[in-house]
Write the C-alpha cells for this entry.
Amino acid sequence: MTELLARTVSVAKQGNILVATVDNPPVNALSHSVRAGLIEAVKALEGDAAARAMIIVCEGRTFIAGADIHEFKKPMVAPLLGEVIDTLDAATKPIIAAIHGTALGGGLEVALACSYRIALDGAKVGLPEVKLGILPGSGGTVRLPRLAGVEQALAMISEGGQIPARDAREKGIVDEVVSGDLRSAAVAFAAKVVADGGKVRRTTDLPVPSFDPAALEASRAALAKKYKGFKAPLVAVDLIKMVTETPVAEAIALEYKTCKELLVSPQSKALRHIFAAEREALKIDGVDAEVKPRDIKKVAIVGPGTMGRGIASCFVNIGIPVTLIGLTDEGLASAVKAIGKIYEGSVKRGSLTAEEMERRMALLTTTTAYDGISDVDLVIEAVTEQLDVKKEVFAKLDAVLRDDAIIATNTSFLDIEELAATSKNATRIAGMHFFNPANVMKLLENVRAAKTAPDVLATTTALGKRLGKVPVMVGRSEGFVANRMLSKRTREAQFLLEDGATPQQVDRVLTAFGFPIGPFALADLAGMDIMAAARAARVARMSPREQQCNIVDRLVAAGRLGQKSSAGYYVYDDNRKASHDPAVDELLDAHRRERGFTARAISDEEILERCLFAMVNEAARILDEGAAARPGDIDVIWTNGFGFPTYLGGPMFMPTRSACRRSRRRSTNMRASLAISISSRPR
Ligand code: 3H9
C-alpha cells in the first residue's frame, strides 16, 4: 500500500517497516511540503501498531540536500524544520535515515535526529551552511559533536566540507556503509533493529565527549586567518563552545537564534547571491535547457606552453585522454615533464596516490602531426596570442577533424569572430578561456561567437562543470569580462599614482577591502614586460591620458620587470617578500613632473571608490553590449577569477546594494550607470 502524505513524501509498508520516500527534485530540499510530509510520516508510524520502525529514503540523485534555499527570502511557513526534527527525535519507534548522494545541512540534521543512519558507499555528509553565511539551525551543532567529537564537528561546521560515508562511519556519524540497493539494505537494517528489540537511540541523550578547550581557541585563530573577512566560521567556534556548556534544549534554541540572525546578515545575502548566480550562470542565454551537450570522450590541445599544460592536466584529472600537439618533440617532452612534476608534488603532499598519477600520465600522448587527432571530439588551441598563428592552426584543424568536432580557442583577447570566420564551419567554433594556472583556477570564461551552435555552447558549459570549474558564458569583447574589467581597474590605479597615491597605499586599500592581492603587487607578479606588451598592443585605442600614463614603460626601461627581476613597483628579497623602494618614489615623482601632475593627498575612500567604480562602469558597458548576460555572471567571474570577496557578493551585487539605498526603483544596469555618473571625470 502506498499512501501519499504530501506531494513530496509518500509512505509504503514493507512487512512491519514503513518506508517514507522523499521525492522533491532536484535535490530533495526541505521545502514546506517535505517538512509537513515528514511529520505526517512519523504520525503514520506512531499510529500504526503493526509498524515497528521506519526508514527515510530519497528518490533521485541525492538524500535531502538541506533547507530549501528559495524559501529563505520569504517568511517561513509552519511546520518549521525545528518541528520536524523535534518530531523525529520524539518518535517512540526507531527511524533509520538511508543516505545516498549527499546529506547536507538540514538534510544531515534530519538524519542526526533519527535513531540510525546507513549510507551508500560513495555518499557524502556535511553541514555546509557556513558557505551560505549561516550555521546549522536545527540541532546540527548540538548533535554532531555528540557523535563525532567536538573538534571534528567544529571542523565540519566551520569549514562546511563534505566527508565520504566511510569516513563518516569511522567518525561515528553513520552506523553502516552499504553497497547495492540502498532501500533494501535499509529495510534489512531496520528489520534487524526491530529483531534486536527495536530500541530508539537519541543523539541528544549522548554526552558531549571531552575535548581540549585550547584546541578550540587554536581553531579560532586558524579560521580567522584562513577565512579572513568571513563572519560565520568564527561564530561557529562560539556556537560549539556554547553547546559544550549548555543543556540540550537551551543549546538548540540558542543555535536557532544564531542561525536566524546570520540569515539576515549582509554576508549571508551576498553568499546566497553567489550560490544562486553560479547556478544561474549555467543557463545559457538563448539556448534551450533541453539542448543536449555533445559527448566529449577524447580531446586534443594545441600548444604545450603554460596554458596548454594546465588545460591538459584538467582533462586527464577527470579521466579524459588528451593528445598534446606541439611544434617540436623537445617542447612536448618538457611539457609532459612539467605536468608530471605537478603530480609528483601532489603525491609528495599525499593528496594523490602514485597509481593515480600513473593513470593520469598514461592518458597523455603527444604528437607534432595533426593527422593523429582525426578522432577527437574537441580541440582546444592554446598557442601564442597572435591572430595569424591561430588562423594557421584553425586551418590545419579544419583539414583533419570530423565535422562534429568542436574547436575552442583559449585566446585571452583576440577577436573570436575573426577566428570563427577563418573556419569552414563557424558553428563549431567557441572559446574556452582558462585562467592561469589552469589546473588550479576555478573560473572558465566560455565564449560564444555569433554562429556558434547551441549544442556547442551547451557542451562547453557542461564540460566546464565536469572539469570542476565554474563556467560562465560570455560574448565577443576585447579581454572578455574578467580581464576587460581588470584592465580598467589597473588603469585607474595608475591614474591614482599620477594623482599622488603610492603603490603601497593602493595595494593596502584593496587588500583591506578583501582582494587577495593589490593591483601593483599583481603587476609585479605578472611581469612588467607582459604589462608593457599588452599596453603597446592597445595604445592606439587608448584615451590621451592613458596613452601618456606610461609608468609601466618607465619601470621596464629601469630594468624593473617585477618579481622576475626582484624589482618592480616593489623590491623583493630572496623569499619574494616585497618592500617599499624609494627608487620607485623617485620614478613616480619624475613621471608626475614631466606630465604636469602635482601630487596631492588621496584618501583611502577615494582609492577604493575609483578602483571599484572603474570596474563597475566597465561592467555596465559589458552588460549593455550583451557581452555578459546577467550582472550575476559578472559577480561569479570576479569572485572566482580575481578573488573579489564572496561575502560582498561581487562587484555588481555590492554597488547595487548601496545604490539601492539611493533608489529602489532603478534597474541593475541603471544602478551601475549611477556609479559612472559618480566617477565621471575625464579619463
Ligand atoms: C540549511 O540546511 C539550514 C539548516 O541548517 C537550518 C534551517 C533553519 N535548496 O548545485 P547543483 C538547486 S541551509 C533549494 O547544480 P549538483 C540548485 O539551485 C542548506 N534548491 O547540483 C539547482 O537548481 P537550478 C544547506 C537547491 O548536483 C539544483 O538544485 N545545504 C538547494 O552540482 C541543482 O544544484 C546546502 O547548502 C537547496 N538547498 O550539486 C546544499 N541546493 O538548476 C547546497 C541545490 O534550478 N547544495 N538546489 O538552479 C549543494 O551543495 C549542491 O546543490 C548539491 C548538488 C551538492 C546538493
